[in-house]
Design goal:
Number of domains: 1
CATH class: Alpha Beta
Largest sheet: 6 strands, mixed
Helix content: 10-25%
Structural class: alpha/beta
CATH architecture: 4-Layer Sandwich
Oligomer: single chain
Shape: globular
Number of helices: 2
Radius of gyration: 13 Å
């Protein structure tokens, strides 16, 4: 599912497979993602941040706290909080 913001040029993605969810570049407000996972009877497993410099407009920390999602960044990001660092060839499974 594509999620479009009405106030900035921004697209986020919600991918659900077999009751597990991976969210990509989420918006600041996380209730939309929480509600959708409840509707789908699914568990949010990952939140992927593909733009580390834009993490101040993301709700990834809130979704981690609310849903237990694992935050995933690329190999060059340097977050000051717990996150999984993805790299070329790393495989993260959903479902």
């Amino acid at each position: 599912m594509n999620i479009y913001s009405g106030f900035v040029v921004y697209t986020a993605y919600y991918v659900e497979i077999n009751d597990e969810v991976a969210d990509f570049d989420i918006l600041r407000e996380v209730q939309l993602y929480v509600d959708r996972a409840v509707k789908d009877v699914a568990r949010t497993k990952y939140v992927f941040e593909t733009h580390f410099h834009a993490d101040f407009v993301s709700g990834h920390l809130d979704l981690k706290n609310e849903a237990g999602a694992e935050i995933v960044f690329g190999p060059l990001a340097k977050p000051i909080y717990e996150a999984t660092m993805a790299h070329h060839g790393k495989v993260l499974f959903i479902a």
